[in-house]
Specification:
The chain is mostly helical and 419 residues long. The protein is built from 18 helices and no strands. It has 2 domains: 190 residues, no CATH class; 204 residues, no CATH class.
């Protein structure tokens, strides 16, 4: 909801070109984060020494050093990337925004201990505080600056608030700089498969931005970013649910040698089904949503959104499937998910680029989670982790949401034809 409020206000204050630059910056941040992903949250949640202050200080040291490294990489990429994408407006904003990554590297690790202990609400509050502060500051700054620097400055506000909220909500022993080769080696051993999977996730999440940023004019790319942002808003909820609810439940079941399937489907509460229904409705109501929220400059975003929202509707399930496999020790199954995604996306990206048809890539992204979900059902059935009745009820919920969304869209446009 905050993301929607943010885009509704900012699209009236900022030109589509600003969203194009911001979209590229966020893609760069996502790329360098995923390339260096070490599975820190999963490592701390599962580790038996997560209550040991010396252990946490050693892990925090690795994370803090990583933050400085990421900032240096982002700054180094600023000029070459602007040349490669033929977007000279990108250089200075990316150079400055990369400093945010240093702040992000200082976050507390006590929040991950709290997640292990079931303090999910407090953990989620950190993201809420960060998102709210970024939304408010971006709107205020955009009112005065009317350019990309409003967004860049809001990134610093959000990171600072996230850092502050983490230490306030999860107080604990003070972290100190404590390099430890044993902890570093153990973390790397744990994260090897995760690192490969994260590298693949990087390709999955950003191949559309890189290819379309090169193929589309900056204004058109900014419109695509708006649609991608709206379709990704529910995915943030799905990712948090899978990581904060499903993963700990499956990890506890694994440690206690209990049924993984029972633990997984116990997580299918009302929010799981509400997400599925809402995802289906988003596909059907995409055109109406864009007409209500944005001015006529952004109407083409409706076409993109209706396609991208198909994968959004399935993300809760596919991400939860991956969390279950990692928590139960089948990391390679989760890796197979991403390998399949990469094969599909790279093929579509190559075809779109060489034929000059960006729609090929957009449709592939929008429908990508359908084969992933089918493959997940197959692998989970092999591991005896599936309940077919529950899966059918989920698919029916998505279809019901789609039908309701289409009916709302048709009724609204019939009543308000000039909308």
């Amino acid at each position: 909801m905050l993301r929607i409020v943010s885009t509704v206000c900012l699209t009236r204050l900022l030109a589509p070109e600003v969203y194009g630059i911001t979209g590229i910056i966020m893609s760069v941040f996502y790329m360098i984060n995923m390339v260096t992903d070490i599975g820190l949250q999963a490592y701390v949640v599962r580790h038996q020494r997560s209550d040991d202050p010396d252990f946490l200080s050693s892990v925090w040291t690795i994370h803090a050093v990583r933050g400085f490294v990421l900032a240096a990489i982002g700054m180094a990429l600023a000029w070459p990337l602007s040349v490669a994408l033929a977007k000279p407006q990108l250089t200075l904003p990316l150079l400055v925004a990369s400093l945010v990554l240093i702040i992000d590297g200082q976050v507390t690790l006590h929040q991950f201990r709290g997640l292990r202990d079931g303090r999910v609400q407090r953990y989620s509050l950190i993201d809420l505080v960060s998102a709210a502060s970024q939304t408010l500051s971006a709107i205020i700054l955009a009112f005065f600056f009317r350019n990309v620097w409003a967004i860049v400055a809001s990134m610093f506000v959000a990171s600072a608030m996230k850092l502050w909220a983490g230490y306030i909500l999860f107080p604990g022993s003070r972290f100190r700089f404590r390099p430890d080769r044993t902890v570093a080696a153990d973390l790397w051993k744990f994260s090897q498969v995760i690192a490969v999977s994260s590298a693949l996730t990087l390709i999955i999440g950003q191949v559309d931005k890189l290819v379309l940023a090169r193929m589309l004019p900056l204004s058109q790319f900014g419109i695509y970013v708006i649609a991608a942002s709206l379709s990704a808003a529910p995915i943030a909820f799905a990712a948090n649910y899978a990581g904060a609810i499903v993963y700990p439940a499956a990890a506890v079941a694994t440690r206690g040698s209990r049924s993984i399937a029972n633990a997984y489907y116990r997580c299918w509460g009302r929010f799981f089904y509400l997400y599925a229904f809402g995802g289906g409705a988003l596909v059907g109501v995409a055109d109406l949503l864009i007409r209500i929220l944005y001015d006529p400059r952004y109407l083409p975003a409706a076409h993109y959104l209706s396609i991208l929202a198909v994968s959004t509707a399935l993300q809760m399930t596919t991400r939860s499937m991956e969390s279950v496999q990692v928590a139960s020790g089948h990391q390679r199954v989760a890796l197979e998910f991403n390998v399949l995604r990469v094969v599909c996306l790279l093929g579509a990206a190559g075809l779109a680029f060489f034929r000059g048809q960006p729609a090929v890539l957009v449709f592939t992204i929008g429908l990508l989670e359908i084969p992933i979900y089918a493959f997940g059902l197959f692998r989970m059935s092999q591991l005896h982790q599936i309940r077919w009745g529950r899966e059918l009820s989920l698919v029916a919920t998505i279809v019901a949401g789609l039908i309701v969304g289409l009916l709302i869209d048709m009724a609204a446009l019939a009543i308000f034809p000039k909308l």
